[in-house]
Automatic annotation (TrEMBL):
Keywords: Repeat, Signal, TPR repeat. TPR repeats lie at residues 76-109, 146-179. The keyword Signal applies. It comes from Sulfuriferula plumbiphila. This is Type IV pilus biogenesis/stability protein PilW.
Amino acid sequence: MNKLAVLLITLLLGACAQPPGADAPSSQQTATSNVGEAQNRARIHTELAADYFTRRQYAIALEELRDAIRADSRYAPAYNMFGLVYMELHEDKTAENNFRRALELAPNESETHNNYGWFLCTRNRFEPAIAQFNEALRNPLYPSPERALTNAGVCSLKAGNQTAAEAYFERALKRQPNQPQALAQLADIYYRQGRYPESRVLLARFFDVSQPSPAPLWLGVRLARKMGDRDAEASYGLQLRRRFADSPETHLLLNGQYE
């Protein structure tokens, strides 16, 4: 029997159980109980959909989400998840409609604002994207504001606003000093500004908390070269060639195109 079946059976058994001699529930209590059970079923289906989404099994994720909505048509997280799935499927109108529906039902849900903002940013709609990230940040109870701050920084860079990007990344690192993407992006900005020692500190912190990837390794090569550290330059270059032989950064390295 699969996990979902076990969970649903447990819910149904719990709903039917009543201790001997207990008073019969009032109609209001019964209605409240039914709402809670429906929402719980919707939550279970949405969590399963999120799991399938991370595995890129989008068709199954959509089926789980349809079951979630059938259980509770006002369960906002299901619409948020619908938006993410349809975003990956490039069904943009449907994705946007679902993000909007999620926010109609739960207007203060910061993670939905963050996800909707990222959708807009990936579609080069930068101004409304930044507005959504800022909406996410208005909620003082948002448990992970560094996510929206980092996304706002990335989106600002895509829009050509390096000054705003720098400010967002710095705010993200004040909230979460080890946020990997903020570390890597801010290190790159400082490098372009000629602030090499500061860039080097941030890049070292990035490699302490994250696996190497082509862009940070390539930044390490160029930064070490600027600072005259031949050993570090050789080390970063060797990692780049061995781990990411086909990456654009490796081709730049092999062609000596450092700038």
